[in-house]
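Input (Schlafen AlbA-2 domain-containing protein):
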Amino acid sequence: MLKTVVAFSNGIGGSILFGGDDERHIIGLSHVQEDAEKISNFIKTKVEPLIMFSLKPASMENKDVLVMEIASGKMTPYYYVNEGTKTAFVRIGNESVVAPSYINHEHMGTAVLFPYWS
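Output:
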């Protein structure tokens, strides 16, 4: 999840749904407020610099979920910090990948990477 948060911040922003499974089924959350606080605190301690995001409760298929909206960052690059290591991520297609060294980190938020279909 943090790789995606960082990649969205380094790009054009994006949304993450909490309360769904890997097959995109809505399973819901049992403790929405508690989950929101844990997610917020996790991001605040593992992402540098601080990112702009909102985390709002919602109902889908009569189940409680959280919707996170992540803004495109103004202070790129943003990093996922884990065990003393800082790693920048970007979105390529539907994946969050380590930012390639050839990407100019000063201009991460201005580039849009589009998938190619033939």
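The chain is about 20% helix and 30% strand.
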